[in-house]
């Protein structure tokens, strides 16, 4: 116990309640509270910790409208048809050989996919709206995301560029 002498010779006690036994009890209580707070989930509400991409289950996109080859050689195609075909009234896309460019009609958009591998519906939706343009020069071995006149979304992998452009196309139903 800590003491000190007063001027009048009487002893005064300092922190008599703060002895080693009391310190040990307080630290035990603090450790118990910390353990309860961190180990037992709170009862006052749901866990609001953010989920990571690896634990989140991706939502399934819409079903596929068309999957197969696409060749453009001076004529335009309607990508909303299955399979894509030339129509006299509404088409989505045509090939401009001089500039090696895909050009889209009306509200159609095309964007380079900058991710790895084939993009899915959501990736193409995001890319088309974020970076899409009415026309875009293309190159072999790249994926492109397309928004059609009727608001279908597609992924186009370019396999050949020249007088024609040829590749693999996936177009999804509207969500």
List the helices and strands and how they pair.
Layout: E1 2-5, E2 11-14, H1 20-39, E3 64-72, E4 93-96, E5 101-104, E6 109-112, H2 121-131, E7 135-137, E8 143-147, E9 153-161, E10 165-172
Antiparallel strand pairs: 1-2, 3-10, 4-5, 5-7, 6-8, 8-9, 9-10
List the total number of helices.
2
Radius of gyration: 34 Å
Helix and strand sequence: EEHEEEEHEEEE
How many beta-strand elements? 10
Distance between the termini: 77 Å
Biggest β-sheet strands, sense, barrel: 5 strands, antiparallel
- Mean pLDDT, rounded to whole units? 81
Global outline: elongated
Strand content: 25-35%
- Give the helix level as a range of percent: 10-25%
The computed structural class is: alpha+beta
Poorly predicted sequence stretches spanning 5 or more consecutive residues: 43-58
**Strand order across the biggest sheet?**
3-10-9-8-6
What does this molecule look like?
- There is one protein chain.
- The protein is α+β, with helices and mostly antiparallel strands and 175 residues long.
- The radius of gyration is 34 Å and the shape is elongated.
- It has a domain at 64-172.
- The protein has 2 helices and 10 strands; from the N terminus they run E-E-H-E-E-E-E-H-E-E-E-E.
- A hairpin with a 3-residue loop joins strand 9 and strand 10 (165-172).
- The strands form 3 sheets. A 5-stranded antiparallel beta sheet has the order 3-10-9-8-6. Strands 4-5-7 form a 3-stranded antiparallel beta sheet, with no helix packed on it.
């Amino acid at each position: 116990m800590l003491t000190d002498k007063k001027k009048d010779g009487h002893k005064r006690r300092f922190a008599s309640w703060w002895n080693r036994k009391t310190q040990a009890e307080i630290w035990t209580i603090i450790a118990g509270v910390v353990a309860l707070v961190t180990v037992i989930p709170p009862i006052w509400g749901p866990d609001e910790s953010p989920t990571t991409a690896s634990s989140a289950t991706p939502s399934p996109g819409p079903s596929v409208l068309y999957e197969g080859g696409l060749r453009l050689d001076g004529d335009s195609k309607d990508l909303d048809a299955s399979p894509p075909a030339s129509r006299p009234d509404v088409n989505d896309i045509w090939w401009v050989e001089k500039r090696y460019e895909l050009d889209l009609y009306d509200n159609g958009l095309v964007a380079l996919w900058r991710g790895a591998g084939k993009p899915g519906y959501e990736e193409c939706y995001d890319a088309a709206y974020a970076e899409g343009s009415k026309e875009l020069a293309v190159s072999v071995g790249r994926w492109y995301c397309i928004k059609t006149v009727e608001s279908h979304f597609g992924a186009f992998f370019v396999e050949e560029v020249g007088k024609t452009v040829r590749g693999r196309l996936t177009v999804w139903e509207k969500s």
